[in-house]
Amino acid sequence: MLRWKDVDLNAGTAGMHWQITQLGWEPVQGRPKTEAGDRTIALDEDTITALRAHRRRTEKTLTRTVSERYKSRGRDRW
Q: Does the keyword Plastid apply (predicted)?
């Protein structure tokens, strides 16, 4: 599982510190079982560019959604 707080686009790295496994029919989030599974990897320029674009889109969508919910409650300002 990749979390934004584990991504450093300026340094070009991403930390792999979480995994999702399945326990019965339920997905379970947790730390990797071994130290080898907990690592930081280098990102290439294409990946950094794609992640930056994805983050911008995500932030715009989140901002718009929060703003729309806020206005729908009869408030026109933050």
A: no
